Amino acid sequence: MSFSTLVSDLTSRGSDRADVRSQYSRARSVASTAATSVSIAGDISSQLHSGYSHPLSRAWQAERQLTKSMLIYPLFISDQPDECTAIPSLPNQSRIGLNRLVPFLEPLVAKGLSSVMLFGVPLAPNAKDALGTAADDPDGPVIQAIRILRRRFRDLYICADVCLCEYTSHGHCGILRDDGSLNNEMSVDRISDVAVAYADAGAHCVAPSDMNDGRIRAIKLKLTAAGINHKVLLMSYAAKFSGCLYGPFRDAAGSCPSFGDRRCYQLPASGRGLARRAIRRDIAEGADIIMVKPAGQYLDIISDAKEIGSDLPIAAYQVSGEFAMIHAAAKAGVFDLKAMVFESTDSILRAGANIIITYFVPELLTWLES
Ligand SMILES: NCc1[nH]cc(CCC(=O)O)c1CC(=O)O
Ligand SMILES: [Zn+2]
Ligand SMILES: [Zn+2]
């Protein structure tokens, strides 16, 4: 670090004057010793502070910069057509009914929104049962939303999350045996039917988040049998970790399990090897996109996914808990919201993702404008 960059670093960090003065004199004494002991010509490779305080020269350091086309915005579609209810644990996010969907999205599409991920929220009494029947109800929120969006927004890319937990009475991501454990075979059969129903309604991409073994292959086979495989991408939530970052989502979607937890089908936080196996397995089964979720706490897994799936797009889901944490910390004055959001998305891109699913999409569309 040269003397002048050290000083400009110190001043730009906003230290107060006295502080800067004392650090300045310390820097000067360091610099003067350095000047006598280091030959400038002999050690050029140690000089990394070559003037990147300018925003453009900072931007040039990035392998990839965030663009609007990398973003997918998650939406909670309610079965109550006129609903537009704020979700308390997810700042600025709402549950939206079918009648509110187009006016809600119009300004975002005008700002460059390119893709959404749909989650259905059945609120009607008796909407939930043991088989998650409402998941592929042709009049249900997801299938209807897909049809409306395809008709109204010609260029919008529509992804549909595929799972049963929003629709099952027990809140688990599949069909259960009498002893309460997941019946993998029945679950995969049901999940793959739901995926085909969403694809058939016009979803460009189906994204199974249930984690049942063998679902990627089953979905591919059924899409092929239905003659629509050529129209739809299959995005696998391949490396999905169980933890405490999904709480606000479960509030929003009403998908909290009524007993037990998701530990038998979601990965343990420490399970890097398991995640690598799941990524390899899902690629072998025919996944077109590999997703890692959550994002910020699992950057190494994103980088593993990029290495293992070097020929596939890699998506990262900055989940509800990450979003809520960043909001809460910004509100508490820990940092500036915008600066932190870009720091988080830069980290996700640096780790190797090229698609980011995040609740910050509306803000990012505004910030990426300038
Ligand atoms: N299969 C449900 C599902 N799909 C996406 C998320 C999490 C998204 C978020 O927290 O933002 C979850 C929650 C869960 O596994 O309980
Ligand atoms: Zn689920
Ligand atoms: Zn799930």
From TrEMBL:
<dbReference type="GO" id="GO:0006782">
    <property type="term" value="P:protoporphyrinogen IX biosynthetic process"/>
</dbReference>
<feature type="binding site">
    <location>
        <position position="359"/>
    </location>
    <ligand>
        <name>5-aminolevulinate 2</name>
    </ligand>
</feature>
<comment type="similarity">
    <text>Belongs to the ALAD family.</text>
</comment>
<keyword id="KW-0456">Lyase</keyword>
<feature type="binding site">
    <location>
        <position position="250"/>
    </location>
    <ligand>
        <name>5-aminolevulinate 1</name>
    </ligand>
</feature>
<comment type="pathway">
    <text>Porphyrin-containing compound metabolism; protoporphyrin-IX biosynthesis; coproporphyrinogen-III from 5-aminolevulinate: step 1/4.</text>
</comment>
<feature type="binding site">
    <location>
        <position position="262"/>
    </location>
    <ligand>
        <name>5-aminolevulinate 1</name>
    </ligand>
</feature>
<dbReference type="InterPro" id="IPR030656">
    <property type="entry name" value="ALAD_AS"/>
</dbReference>
<dbReference type="InterPro" id="IPR013785">
    <property type="entry name" value="Aldolase_TIM"/>
</dbReference>
<feature type="binding site">
    <location>
        <position position="165"/>
    </location>
    <ligand>
        <name>Zn(2+)</name>
    </ligand>
</feature>
<keyword id="KW-0350">Heme biosynthesis</keyword>
<keyword id="KW-0627">Porphyrin biosynthesis</keyword>
<feature type="binding site">
    <location>
        <position position="173"/>
    </location>
    <ligand>
        <name>Zn(2+)</name>
    </ligand>
</feature>
<feature type="active site" description="Schiff-base intermediate with substrate">
    <location>
        <position position="293"/>
    </location>
</feature>
<protein>
    <recommendedName>
        <fullName>Delta-aminolevulinic acid dehydratase</fullName>
        <ecNumber>4.2.1.24</ecNumber>
    </recommendedName>
</protein>
<feature type="binding site">
    <location>
        <position position="163"/>
    </location>
    <ligand>
        <name>Zn(2+)</name>
    </ligand>
</feature>
<feature type="binding site">
    <location>
        <position position="320"/>
    </location>
    <ligand>
        <name>5-aminolevulinate 2</name>
    </ligand>
</feature>
<dbReference type="Pfam" id="PF00490">
    <property type="entry name" value="ALAD"/>
</dbReference>
<keyword id="KW-0479">Metal-binding</keyword>
<comment type="subunit">
    <text>Homooctamer.</text>
</comment>
<feature type="active site" description="Schiff-base intermediate with substrate">
    <location>
        <position position="240"/>
    </location>
</feature>
<dbReference type="GO" id="GO:0008270">
    <property type="term" value="F:zinc ion binding"/>
</dbReference>
<dbReference type="InterPro" id="IPR001731">
    <property type="entry name" value="ALAD"/>
</dbReference>
<dbReference type="GO" id="GO:0004655">
    <property type="term" value="F:porphobilinogen synthase activity"/>
</dbReference>
<dbReference type="GO" id="GO:0005829">
    <property type="term" value="C:cytosol"/>
</dbReference>
<comment type="function">
    <text>Catalyzes an early step in the biosynthesis of tetrapyrroles. Binds two molecules of 5-aminolevulinate per subunit, each at a distinct site, and catalyzes their condensation to form porphobilinogen.</text>
</comment>
<keyword id="KW-0862">Zinc</keyword>
